[in-house]
Protein backbone atom coordinates (compact mmCIF):
# COMPACT_ATOMS: atom_id res chain seq x y z
CA UNK A 1 0.00 0.00 0.00
CA UNK A 2 2.93 2.31 -0.60
CA UNK A 3 1.87 5.89 -1.46
CA UNK A 4 -1.81 5.09 -0.93
CA UNK A 5 -3.74 8.36 -0.69
CA UNK A 6 -7.36 9.18 0.11
CA UNK A 7 -10.05 11.55 -1.11
CA UNK A 8 -13.14 12.07 1.06
CA UNK A 9 -16.43 12.18 -0.83
CA UNK A 10 -19.61 13.29 0.93
CA UNK A 11 -23.32 12.96 0.14
CA UNK A 12 -22.79 10.94 -3.01
CA UNK A 13 -26.03 10.09 -4.83
CA UNK A 14 -26.08 6.55 -6.20
CA UNK A 15 -27.79 5.64 -9.44
CA UNK A 16 -30.37 3.63 -7.49
CA UNK A 17 -31.53 6.83 -5.79
CA UNK A 18 -29.88 6.14 -2.46
CA UNK A 19 -27.32 8.50 -0.98
CA UNK A 20 -23.99 7.56 0.56
CA UNK A 21 -23.16 10.13 3.22
CA UNK A 22 -19.44 9.33 3.11
CA UNK A 23 -17.20 7.47 0.65
CA UNK A 24 -13.43 7.26 1.01
CA UNK A 25 -11.74 7.01 -2.38
CA UNK A 26 -8.23 5.57 -2.20
CA UNK A 27 -5.75 5.96 -5.02
CA UNK A 28 -2.08 5.87 -6.01
CA UNK A 29 -0.07 8.05 -8.37
CA UNK A 30 2.96 6.74 -10.25
CA UNK A 31 5.49 8.40 -12.51
CA UNK A 32 5.54 12.13 -13.11
CA UNK A 33 4.01 14.64 -10.68
CA UNK A 34 0.43 15.69 -11.27
CA UNK A 35 0.18 18.59 -13.67
CA UNK A 36 3.57 17.98 -15.28
CA UNK A 37 2.82 15.24 -17.82
CA UNK A 38 0.01 13.55 -19.77
CA UNK A 39 -2.26 11.56 -17.48
CA UNK A 40 -3.14 7.88 -17.82
CA UNK A 41 -5.91 6.43 -15.67
CA UNK A 42 -5.63 2.67 -15.10
CA UNK A 43 -8.78 0.92 -13.85
CA UNK A 44 -8.27 -2.33 -11.99
CA UNK A 45 -10.11 -5.61 -12.52
CA UNK A 46 -12.34 -7.64 -10.19
CA UNK A 47 -9.71 -8.73 -7.68
CA UNK A 48 -7.21 -6.00 -8.52
CA UNK A 49 -6.34 -2.71 -6.86
CA UNK A 50 -4.51 0.56 -7.37
CA UNK A 51 -1.04 -0.97 -7.06
CA UNK A 52 -0.46 -1.25 -10.80
CA UNK A 53 3.33 -0.95 -10.81
CA UNK A 54 6.51 -0.95 -8.68
CA UNK A 55 6.65 -3.35 -5.70
CA UNK A 56 4.00 -6.08 -6.08
CA UNK A 57 2.46 -4.20 -9.00
CA UNK A 58 -0.02 -6.42 -10.82
CA UNK A 59 0.70 -4.78 -14.22
CA UNK A 60 4.46 -4.33 -14.01
CA UNK A 61 4.77 -5.83 -17.48
CA UNK A 62 2.89 -2.85 -18.94
CA UNK A 63 3.30 0.10 -16.55
CA UNK A 64 6.63 1.37 -15.24
CA UNK A 65 9.98 2.86 -16.20
CA UNK A 66 10.81 2.00 -19.84
CA UNK A 67 7.58 -0.03 -20.13
CA UNK A 68 4.97 0.76 -22.78
CA UNK A 69 3.09 3.01 -20.34
CA UNK A 70 6.30 4.70 -19.34
CA UNK A 71 6.30 6.35 -15.94
CA UNK A 72 9.27 8.44 -17.11
CA UNK A 73 6.83 10.27 -19.40
CA UNK A 74 3.34 9.82 -17.96
CA UNK A 75 1.50 10.43 -14.73
CA UNK A 76 -0.39 7.24 -13.93
CA UNK A 77 -3.40 7.43 -11.61
CA UNK A 78 -5.11 4.30 -10.31
CA UNK A 79 -8.19 4.48 -8.09
CA UNK A 80 -9.48 1.68 -5.91
CA UNK A 81 -13.11 0.80 -6.41
CA UNK A 82 -14.62 1.75 -3.02
CA UNK A 83 -15.16 -1.38 -0.99
CA UNK A 84 -12.38 -3.43 -2.59
CA UNK A 85 -10.64 -3.64 0.78
CA UNK A 86 -7.19 -2.60 -0.42
CA UNK A 87 -6.92 0.06 2.30
CA UNK A 88 -7.21 -2.69 4.92
CA UNK A 89 -9.92 -0.86 6.87
CA UNK A 90 -12.87 -3.18 7.54
CA UNK A 91 -15.08 -0.14 8.13
CA UNK A 92 -14.77 0.73 4.44
CA UNK A 93 -16.23 -2.53 3.14
CA UNK A 94 -19.67 -2.34 1.52
CA UNK A 95 -22.37 -4.78 2.58
CA UNK A 96 -25.27 -3.34 0.56
CA UNK A 97 -23.45 -4.20 -2.66
CA UNK A 98 -26.55 -4.30 -4.85
CA UNK A 99 -27.03 -0.56 -4.33
CA UNK A 100 -24.03 0.14 -6.58
CA UNK A 101 -23.50 0.12 -10.34
CA UNK A 102 -20.55 0.55 -12.66
CA UNK A 103 -21.91 4.00 -13.49
CA UNK A 104 -21.58 4.95 -9.83
CA UNK A 105 -17.95 3.81 -9.84
CA UNK A 106 -17.20 5.77 -13.01
CA UNK A 107 -18.76 8.88 -11.47
CA UNK A 108 -16.75 8.35 -8.29
CA UNK A 109 -13.55 8.15 -10.35
CA UNK A 110 -14.41 11.37 -12.16
CA UNK A 111 -15.04 12.99 -8.77
CA UNK A 112 -11.58 11.87 -7.76
CA UNK A 113 -10.04 13.36 -10.89
CA UNK A 114 -11.90 16.62 -10.28
CA UNK A 115 -10.53 16.70 -6.74
CA UNK A 116 -7.03 16.24 -8.19
CA UNK A 117 -7.74 19.13 -10.60
CA UNK A 118 -7.49 16.85 -13.62
CA UNK A 119 -9.73 18.13 -16.39
CA UNK A 120 -8.56 15.97 -19.27
CA UNK A 121 -6.67 12.68 -19.59
CA UNK A 122 -4.43 11.23 -22.28
CA UNK A 123 -5.84 7.73 -21.80
CA UNK A 124 -8.19 5.64 -19.70
CA UNK A 125 -7.32 1.95 -19.82
CA UNK A 126 -8.57 -1.11 -18.00
CA UNK A 127 -9.16 -4.82 -18.39
CA UNK A 128 -12.29 -6.86 -17.63
CA UNK A 129 -14.27 -5.00 -14.93
CA UNK A 130 -11.80 -2.13 -15.22
CA UNK A 131 -12.42 -1.98 -18.95
CA UNK A 132 -16.16 -1.78 -18.41
CA UNK A 133 -15.55 1.21 -16.13
CA UNK A 134 -13.50 2.86 -18.90
CA UNK A 135 -16.51 2.66 -21.22
CA UNK A 136 -18.75 4.28 -18.63
CA UNK A 137 -16.21 7.01 -17.88
CA UNK A 138 -16.17 7.91 -21.57
CA UNK A 139 -19.97 7.90 -21.78
CA UNK A 140 -20.18 10.25 -18.79
CA UNK A 141 -17.61 12.71 -20.16
CA UNK A 142 -17.18 12.04 -23.87
CA UNK A 143 -14.91 15.06 -24.43
CA UNK A 144 -12.37 14.54 -21.64
CA UNK A 145 -10.42 11.50 -22.85
CA UNK A 146 -7.94 11.34 -25.75
CA UNK A 147 -7.64 7.55 -25.88
CA UNK A 148 -10.17 5.01 -24.59
CA UNK A 149 -8.70 1.52 -24.21
CA UNK A 150 -11.08 -1.17 -22.91
CA UNK A 151 -9.40 -4.59 -22.78
CA UNK A 152 -11.09 -8.01 -22.57
CA UNK A 153 -14.42 -6.41 -21.77
CA UNK A 154 -17.57 -4.93 -23.30
CA UNK A 155 -19.77 -1.84 -23.12
CA UNK A 156 -22.62 -4.00 -21.81
CA UNK A 157 -23.17 -7.12 -19.77
CA UNK A 158 -24.28 -9.87 -22.12
CA UNK A 159 -26.66 -12.61 -21.02
CA UNK A 160 -23.62 -14.89 -20.72
CA UNK A 161 -21.88 -12.49 -18.33
CA UNK A 162 -25.06 -11.94 -16.31
CA UNK A 163 -25.57 -15.70 -16.02
CA UNK A 164 -22.08 -16.23 -14.67
CA UNK A 165 -22.47 -13.30 -12.26
CA UNK A 166 -25.57 -15.06 -10.91
CA UNK A 167 -23.67 -18.31 -10.39
CA UNK A 168 -20.90 -16.45 -8.60
CA UNK A 169 -23.42 -14.57 -6.44
CA UNK A 170 -25.16 -17.80 -5.47
CA UNK A 171 -21.86 -19.38 -4.46
CA UNK A 172 -20.75 -16.29 -2.54
CA UNK A 173 -24.00 -16.19 -0.58
CA UNK A 174 -24.61 -19.90 0.03
CA UNK A 175 -21.30 -21.75 0.15
CA UNK A 176 -19.63 -22.79 3.39
CA UNK A 177 -16.32 -21.60 1.91
CA UNK A 178 -17.55 -18.90 -0.46
CA UNK A 179 -14.38 -17.18 -1.66
CA UNK A 180 -12.58 -20.44 -2.39
CA UNK A 181 -15.57 -22.06 -4.10
CA UNK A 182 -16.42 -18.98 -6.17
CA UNK A 183 -12.81 -18.69 -7.27
CA UNK A 184 -12.82 -22.27 -8.55
CA UNK A 185 -15.61 -21.43 -10.96
CA UNK A 186 -14.19 -18.03 -11.91
CA UNK A 187 -10.70 -19.36 -12.60
CA UNK A 188 -12.03 -21.75 -15.23
CA UNK A 189 -13.85 -18.83 -16.90
CA UNK A 190 -10.61 -16.87 -17.01
CA UNK A 191 -8.68 -19.68 -18.73
CA UNK A 192 -9.48 -22.19 -21.48
CA UNK A 193 -10.00 -25.96 -21.69
CA UNK A 194 -7.04 -26.12 -24.08
CA UNK A 195 -4.75 -24.44 -21.53
CA UNK A 196 -5.92 -26.63 -18.65
CA UNK A 197 -5.67 -29.87 -20.63
CA UNK A 198 -2.29 -29.02 -22.09
CA UNK A 199 -0.81 -27.97 -18.75
CA UNK A 200 -2.00 -30.79 -16.51
CA UNK A 201 -2.55 -33.82 -18.78
CA UNK A 202 -4.48 -35.67 -16.06
CA UNK A 203 -1.31 -35.88 -13.97
CA UNK A 204 -1.32 -36.72 -10.28
CA UNK A 205 0.54 -35.15 -7.40
CA UNK A 206 0.91 -38.29 -5.33
CA UNK A 207 -0.08 -41.92 -4.94
CA UNK A 208 -3.32 -40.85 -3.23
CA UNK A 209 -4.60 -39.77 -6.65
CA UNK A 210 -4.67 -36.05 -5.92
CA UNK A 211 -4.86 -34.51 -9.38
CA UNK A 212 -2.73 -31.52 -10.26
CA UNK A 213 -5.67 -29.65 -11.77
CA UNK A 214 -7.59 -29.95 -8.51
CA UNK A 215 -4.61 -28.79 -6.48
CA UNK A 216 -4.06 -25.85 -8.85
CA UNK A 217 -7.68 -24.69 -8.62
CA UNK A 218 -7.84 -25.05 -4.84
CA UNK A 219 -4.56 -23.16 -4.53
CA UNK A 220 -6.06 -20.25 -6.49
CA UNK A 221 -9.06 -20.25 -4.19
CA UNK A 222 -7.05 -20.34 -0.96
CA UNK A 223 -4.68 -17.60 -2.12
CA UNK A 224 -7.60 -15.30 -2.91
CA UNK A 225 -9.26 -16.10 0.42
CA UNK A 226 -6.07 -15.10 2.23
CA UNK A 227 -5.96 -11.64 0.64
CA UNK A 228 -9.55 -10.77 -0.25
CA UNK A 229 -12.73 -10.00 1.67
CA UNK A 230 -16.07 -11.62 1.00
CA UNK A 231 -17.88 -8.26 0.91
CA UNK A 232 -15.42 -7.03 -1.72
CA UNK A 233 -15.92 -10.12 -3.88
CA UNK A 234 -19.71 -9.78 -3.73
CA UNK A 235 -19.55 -6.12 -4.77
CA UNK A 236 -17.07 -6.54 -7.62
CA UNK A 237 -18.94 -9.52 -9.02
CA UNK A 238 -22.26 -7.65 -8.85
CA UNK A 239 -20.85 -4.63 -10.66
CA UNK A 240 -20.22 -6.75 -13.76
CA UNK A 241 -23.95 -7.28 -14.35
CA UNK A 242 -24.67 -3.53 -14.10
CA UNK A 243 -22.47 -2.76 -17.10
CA UNK A 244 -24.52 -0.95 -19.79
CA UNK A 245 -23.64 2.48 -21.16
CA UNK A 246 -27.10 2.69 -22.79
CA UNK A 247 -29.12 2.31 -19.57
CA UNK A 248 -31.50 5.29 -19.39
CA UNK A 249 -29.72 6.71 -22.43
CA UNK A 250 -30.19 6.45 -26.21
CA UNK A 251 -28.94 3.46 -28.24
CA UNK A 252 -25.31 2.39 -28.30
CA UNK A 253 -24.30 4.10 -31.53
CA UNK A 254 -25.79 7.39 -30.41
CA UNK A 255 -23.96 7.24 -27.07
CA UNK A 256 -20.66 6.00 -28.52
CA UNK A 257 -20.71 8.50 -31.38
CA UNK A 258 -20.47 11.29 -28.81
CA UNK A 259 -17.19 9.91 -27.48
CA UNK A 260 -14.39 12.02 -28.93
CA UNK A 261 -11.57 9.70 -27.85
CA UNK A 262 -9.73 7.34 -30.11
CA UNK A 263 -11.34 4.02 -29.20
CA UNK A 264 -8.99 1.03 -29.11
CA UNK A 265 -10.90 -2.20 -28.62
CA UNK A 266 -8.59 -4.98 -27.42
CA UNK A 267 -9.84 -8.55 -27.19
CA UNK A 268 -8.45 -11.99 -26.47
CA UNK A 269 -9.30 -14.53 -29.17
CA UNK A 270 -9.98 -17.27 -26.58
CA UNK A 271 -11.83 -15.17 -23.99
CA UNK A 272 -14.70 -17.25 -22.58
CA UNK A 273 -16.12 -14.44 -20.43
CA UNK A 274 -16.13 -11.38 -22.69
CA UNK A 275 -16.09 -13.18 -26.00
CA UNK A 276 -14.19 -11.58 -28.87
CA UNK A 277 -17.11 -11.77 -31.30
CA UNK A 278 -19.10 -9.29 -29.21
CA UNK A 279 -16.26 -6.80 -29.52
CA UNK A 280 -15.96 -7.45 -33.24
CA UNK A 281 -19.67 -6.61 -33.57
CA UNK A 282 -19.04 -3.40 -31.66
CA UNK A 283 -16.13 -2.56 -33.95
CA UNK A 284 -18.15 -3.20 -37.10
CA UNK A 285 -20.97 -0.97 -35.88
CA UNK A 286 -18.72 1.81 -34.64
CA UNK A 287 -16.27 1.85 -37.53
CA UNK A 288 -19.17 2.47 -39.91
CA UNK A 289 -19.85 5.73 -38.04
CA UNK A 290 -16.45 6.80 -36.68
CA UNK A 291 -12.97 6.89 -38.17
CA UNK A 292 -11.02 6.76 -34.90
CA UNK A 293 -12.04 3.24 -33.83
CA UNK A 294 -9.50 0.42 -33.89
CA UNK A 295 -9.69 -3.32 -33.27
CA UNK A 296 -6.80 -5.31 -31.79
CA UNK A 297 -6.66 -8.96 -30.76
CA UNK A 298 -4.36 -10.89 -28.47
CA UNK A 299 -3.80 -14.47 -29.62
CA UNK A 300 -3.41 -16.74 -26.62
CA UNK A 301 -4.20 -20.14 -25.19
CA UNK A 302 -4.67 -18.47 -21.80
CA UNK A 303 -8.17 -17.05 -22.37
CA UNK A 304 -9.56 -14.01 -20.56
CA UNK A 305 -6.50 -13.58 -18.33
CA UNK A 306 -4.19 -13.21 -21.34
CA UNK A 307 -4.04 -9.43 -20.85
CA UNK A 308 -2.30 -10.18 -17.54
CA UNK A 309 0.07 -12.68 -19.15
CA UNK A 310 0.80 -11.84 -22.80
CA UNK A 311 2.73 -8.64 -22.06
CA UNK A 312 4.71 -8.67 -25.30
CA UNK A 313 1.61 -8.84 -27.47
CA UNK A 314 -0.22 -6.25 -25.43
CA UNK A 315 2.81 -3.94 -25.44
CA UNK A 316 3.01 -4.18 -29.24
CA UNK A 317 -0.64 -3.15 -29.46
CA UNK A 318 -0.29 -0.28 -27.00
CA UNK A 319 3.08 1.08 -28.15
CA UNK A 320 1.76 3.23 -31.04
CA UNK A 321 -0.81 4.77 -28.67
CA UNK A 322 1.63 5.59 -25.88
CA UNK A 323 4.59 6.55 -28.04
CA UNK A 324 4.32 10.07 -26.66
CA UNK A 325 7.97 10.96 -26.02
CA UNK A 326 7.61 14.68 -25.73
CA UNK A 327 4.87 15.26 -28.30
CA UNK A 328 2.20 17.79 -27.46
CA UNK A 329 -0.82 16.35 -25.62
CA UNK A 330 -3.27 17.16 -22.89
CA UNK A 331 -1.83 18.12 -19.50
CA UNK A 332 -4.32 19.25 -16.88
CA UNK A 333 -3.80 21.04 -13.63
Automatic annotation (TrEMBL):
Domain AB hydrolase-1 positions: 38-156
Active site per UniProt: 128, 271, 304
InterPro entries: AB_hydrolase_1, AB_hydrolase_fold, HAT_MetX-like
Organism encoding this protein: Flavobacterium gilvum
Gene3D superfamilies named among the record's database cross-references: alpha/beta hydrolase
TM segment ranges: none
UniProt-recorded Gene Ontology molecular function terms: homoserine O-acetyltransferase activity
Alphabetic keyword roster: Transferase
Biological process annotations from GO: homoserine metabolic process; methionine biosynthetic process
Pfam families noted in UniProt: Abhydrolase_1
Listed SUPFAM superfamilies: alpha/beta-Hydrolases
Lineage: Bacteria, Pseudomonadati, Bacteroidota, Flavobacteriia, Flavobacteriales
Name this polypeptide is given: Homoserine acetyltransferase
